[in-house]
Amino acid sequence: MNGENMENLNELFGRFLDPEQAEKAVEDVASAEQVLREHQAPEPSAELIADIKATITTTLARRRTNIYKTAAYQVAAVAAVIVILAFVGNRLLMHQQDKFMPPTMLSQQIWESDDIAEDDPDLAYFVSEVDQIKDELWSIKWGENGVNGDDSLADLEIELLEINSDFWKG
Amino acid sequence: MPESDDLARIIAGCKNGNSESFSKVVDRYASRFCGYFYRLTGNRDLSDDLLSELFVKLVEKIGSYKGGSFESWLFRIASNIFHDHLRAKQKRQRIIEQQRQDFESEQAEPIRSEDERIDKLQMQLATLDEDTRELIMLRFYSQLSFKEIAKIRAEPIGTTLSKLHRGVKKLRELME
Fold first, then answer.
1. How many domains, chain A?
2. Do A55 and A94 reside in the same domain of the chain?
3. Is the model's pLDDT at A3 over the cut of 50?
4. Residue A109 lies in a domain
5. Which residues of B touch A29 (CB under 8 A)?
6. Distance, in angstroms, between A75 CA and closest chain B CA?
7. Domain annotation covers residue A107
8. Is A12 on the interface with B (CB under 8 A)?
9. What is the mean pLDDT of chain B?
10. Are residues A50 and A94 in the same domain?
């Protein structure tokens, strides 16, 4: 025991015992430590030290293997999760595409319209054209415009073909 | 190089899994811990086993060492190993007692190796209760302050001082 510890002991025992008892206690401790010093415990054998060092090397190697294994399992688990998520995501996307028309194909106004023929300008134009032709057909049928019915019908047929062609051209 | 710097370097090596660093720790502390375990158990084979266990635990737990007194930390592990050993021994004794109900009950006796000479000190130490014996050995072999010892034992410093004083007084009387 060094001098610093002796000072600590005097001070420590002094907190709990009166000065005389504290001094006696410090003597008892010092005496017991002297006995222990005089009766040295056996030293570890060289074989034991070598055995301990070998055990440490083995334990370290095993720990390293376990760390690599754990890391490999974690990487495999993460990879599996990514693959599953990608697969499920892909399936969901395909399902969505099958179920819904892409909103870019039709404007929202037309998509939500109750009367597409009126709300779509292109369709409205064709509807007005069809109505006009219908009126002319009725006029021809009833001889209201006083022209030759055959020529007028041929003109109308040409006009219808043109409209049809324009429609499909967009 | 100062001893504390050297120890810090060794501990850093241990944390990196360097077996050479662990070997240096063994060289540095094996003797003290061997004495500690031997005086607690009085059995050479058993103290050798406990010493080996201590250094295996060191490898396993070095990551949890966060600074402070390395010796204090190591002695805490050693103390836990000894208490685990005591608990296992008591469990074994209970089983044996159950199996030998017709035989006289076992007495607490010092563990002895047949091929070794038990010195007088060891015989007297065996008459102390295990807790007091451990406290005296902890103080002598660890050379830690009473504050640190009380912390390891999770008890007030006054309790530690009182127990130690009773123990060393008795030991002194026995040895005279």
1. 3
2. yes
3. no
4. no
5. 139, 164-165, 168
6. 23
7. no
8. yes
9. 86
10. yes
